[in-house]
Amino acid sequence: MISETIDLHGMRREEAFLYVEDELLRRSNLGSFAITIITGNSKAMRDGVIKVCDKHGFDYVVPSYNMGQLSVTYLSI
């Protein structure tokens, strides 16, 4: 399983959402993965990434110890 990090600091929201969507779909075509997406403290950025995950059915968790990141997983069958 591939495990990495995407850091969205310095990216505009729309650019970041498209990048995250492309990366998650690309990785899902390769198989299972776990990835940490760093959104920073922007609620709008976090909510946009959550919307992308929900749109494509990716599982995610916002850890209580760091609200500025999401842990996204995908298990291929």
Describe this structure in words.
- The chain has one domain (2-74): Ribosomal Protein S8, Chain: A, domain 1 (2-Layer Sandwich), CATH 3.30.1370.
- It is built from 2 helices and 4 strands.
- The chain is globular.
- The two termini are 13 Å apart.
- The longest helix is centred in the first third of the chain and has 18 residues, at 13-30.
- 42% of the residues lie in helices and 27% in strands.
- The protein has a 4-stranded mixed sheet with strand order 1-2-4-3, with helices on one face.
- The protein is an alpha+beta fold.
- It has helices at 13-30, 43-56; strands at 2-7, 33-38, 59-61, 69-74.
Task: Provide tags for this entry.
single chain; 77 residues; alpha+beta; Ribosomal Protein S8, Chain: A, domain 1; four-stranded mixed β-sheet; 2 helices; 4 strands; 42% helix; globular
Fold blueprint:
Layout (H helix, E strand, L loop, with lengths): L1 E6 L5 H18 L2 E6 L4 H14 L2 E3 L7 E6 L3
Parallel strand pairs: 1-2
Antiparallel strand pairs: 2-4, 3-4
Helix pairs in contact: 1-2
Summarize this entry quickly.
The chain is of the alpha+beta class.
